[in-house]
Design a protein that fits this description.
globular; mainly alpha
Amino acid sequence: MNRLVALMSQRLLLLLLALFIAMPLCVVVAISFNATSRMVFPPDAWSLRWYQDFFSDPGWVAAFERSVAIAALASLLATSIALPLAFIAWQRRSRLARLLSGAGTMPFMLPPVIIAILFMLLWGFLRHVGQIENTIISHGMTFLALPLVLLSLGFKQIDSSLVEAARTLGARQRHIISGIVLPLITPYIASSLIFVAILSMNEYLIAYMVAGFTVETLPVKVFSSLRTGFTPTMCVGAVLFMLVGLMGFIAIAWLDNLPRLLGGKH
């Protein structure tokens, strides 16, 4: 009986916590369907007016498309750098390989404002400012730590006996990589791409400081629009962020078991 009560209490606590976390998201979604321009919850009347405004405004659409492009390229860059680093660290297990992997996680450990200032100074020193590639490279380097950690976990999941057995049977290195390593590591590669893309799409400070309004991403567009006052169109942008993130996590769950990808038990 006591065990049942404890279990029910635990589930109730988790439910209340989930509701508390989801409440701000529900408010934003509801306001995006508000028929008036006031921030009213619950809405007095429901309408798709602000979605029509969003997708008919070239500025909002361009900012969203730019955010998607930057996120895709930044995730590709970060994962492309992290993959060989994690592979070398797993295969050779040398101090230099661990040092390179550790250096890749440094930008993620620093405060975002420090990283943003450093990249702003870098691009200013190179006299290459206000370009979309600045944001792509800056995001890719900042979020490099995430694919490094995920891919390192993936390589640790590979049973060394499989590799040894393949070598004993005469398999060459490229056959081991293509036949054993790559299939086992593919869910971690895909998860790295998705995680970095989600973080890049939601990042504001670095995108603003390295390129400003010349390369206006959706978060920059939202914050710049606040200068002229609140409109539910901003909430439409937030809803799109949530949908992209939700689809990303659904894709990760479809690829493999999420706790296992994050280093938990099978």
